[in-house]
Amino acid sequence: MFDLNNQSYFIKKNYLIIAMLFSIFVVNAQNETIENEKRNELKTNVLLPLTGAFEITYERILNEKSSLGVSAFTVFNNEKSHDDLNYSISPYYRTYFGKKFASGFFAEGFGMLSSIDGKKIYDSKDNSIFTEGSDVIDFSLGLGFGGKWVKKSGFIFEVNAGYGKLLFNADKTDHTIVAKFGFHLGYRF
């Protein structure tokens, strides 16, 4: 077994105790840093108002590598908006691959409850467009990706894109997919 009079045994034991205590302090310091991080974000898509639409997003950070969020989209000027999407609510889950807390490159899975214009009828005589039937409510599932940069002050810059598939009423509209594109500015608090 062990010779208790052996000086190298006590030296190794002391080094082991010091290494264990050091690792406990390092892990505790990292946990305090993560606990002190701000976990709420509010963002808006800054390009959409130029096209007659508005989108706002709330995101809750779960841990340093994942978050949950929801975005709401609506059209406020139909003359400027050339999109068939009228409004949507889109919850999502993100996984971050960056080195900083909940930032860097990310991948997301999302759902989208949306209102989309019905099928279009094109009249070649006078180049007019008519909508056949009422707006279509549908649910989509999709995947997206993007990047997020967060300043120490809490200011956020984010770019993202995603595509999803209409699940139930695609035959009643001119679309089978939905798309999400964003250039967001916001604040982490």
Describe this entry's structure for a reader.
This protein is an alpha+beta fold and 189 residues long. The protein folds into 2 domains: 1-36; 38-188, Porin (Beta Barrel), CATH 2.40.160.20. Helices cover 15% and strands 52% of the residues. The chain is built from 1 helix and 10 strands. Strand 2 (53-63) and strand 3 form a beta hairpin. It is elongated and about 100 Å long.
Radius of gyration: 26 Å
Q: What general outline do the C-alpha atoms trace? A: elongated
- Counting DSSP E segments of at least 2 residues, the number of strands comes to 10
Helices and strands: which structural class? alpha+beta
Named CATH architecture of the largest domain? Beta Barrel
Q: What is the CA-CA span between the terminal residues?
A: 57 Å
How many DSSP helices?
1
Strand/helix succession: HEEEEEEEEEE
CATH fold-level label of the largest domain: Porin
What percentage of the residues does DSSP assign to strands (E)? over 45%
Whole-number count of domains: 2
Average pLDDT over all residues: 81
Low-confidence stretches: 27-33
Main sheet characteristics: 8 strands, antiparallel, barrel
CATH class of the largest domain: Mainly Beta
Which bin fits the share of residues in helices?
Answer: 10-25%
